[in-house]
């Protein structure tokens, strides 16, 4: 067979499904956008394990009216201007890819309001990332992204994720992503609901220990000690079980498996460390690992 370029619709689907692999990858991208927009309140809601609907609502900066037409177009970002900016990146996002990829595999609406806007607007976006309808709304400051019918146009992926066991695993993964991204921001308030049931919530607090306590509980949290390393170019903060035998045994018997690792507040997986650790990492298989 001779070499031919694929039709553009196929290219879009193939490349999008590399960024948007699952429900948890959508939640991760939308939560990271909310955090980049300096939100202090984030509400994540799923219906039917996220396959019918995913909603991420934040009270962040919102999107300027003049920027909205570009929000879901490929390679449009407000986070960097060029490659050199990657050296001093402070945001989670930088590729300008996530929302466009989500549009290719789902129906997306964006509701947003900045502090300058009198009224919020709801934008319906088509599969190419262009706005097709606009209407006003009473939404407060911030942004709400809704993603409906994820993978409706990729039946194989949808039925794979829809099977009972996999759907449950995927919900667990979403839970881990929400917790990982929430714990590292103590001042953040988060709620996570599935089919209108509240699965987890985190209130705003003042320290990493109090933040982690909302995942592992008071018993485990009280058994941890803080270790701090400060070098000119490197700063490491750890919360690990105190090393006296009694304490380690108590932690091991507690049935709480939890290892969360971050570089510059970005959740990561480091397999070598996972191997020597007593703890299983959170089930965040869509995070980068090394
Ligand atoms: N919740 C939000 N609040 C405010 N602005 C947002 C929000 N979500 C998206 N945006 C704006 O839309 C742009 C595109 O978002 P998108 O997630 O596609 O790309 P990105 O975050 O820049 O990069 P990446 O693809 O790495 O996530 C962002 O750069 C940001 O300006
Ligand atoms: Mg993003």
Automatic annotation (TrEMBL):
| Region forming the signal peptide | none
Sorted alphabetically, which CDD domains does this protein's record hold?
Answer: HATPase_MutL-MLH-PMS-like (cd16926)
Q: Which domain of life is it from?
A: Eukaryota
Per the record, the gene is RsPMS1
- Which Gene Ontology terms describe the biological processes this protein takes part in? mismatch repair
> Mind naming one GO cellular-component term on file for this protein?
MutLalpha complex
Q: Which family does it belong to?
A: Belongs to the DNA mismatch repair MutL/HexB family.
* Stated name of the protein: Putative DNA mismatch repair protein PMS1
Sorted alphabetically, which PANTHER family does this protein's record hold?
DNA MISMATCH REPAIR PROTEIN MLH, PMS, MUTL (PTHR10073), PMS1 PROTEIN HOMOLOG 1 (PTHR10073:SF54)
The scientific name of the source species is Reticulitermes speratus
Q: Short name of one Pfam family for this protein?
A: HATPase_c_3
**Which molecular function terms from Gene Ontology are attached?**
ATP binding; ATP hydrolysis activity; ATP-dependent DNA damage sensor activity; mismatched DNA binding
UniProt xrefs under InterPro entries: DNA_mismatch_repair_CS, HATPase_C_sf, MutL/Mlh/PMS, MutL/Mlh/Pms-like
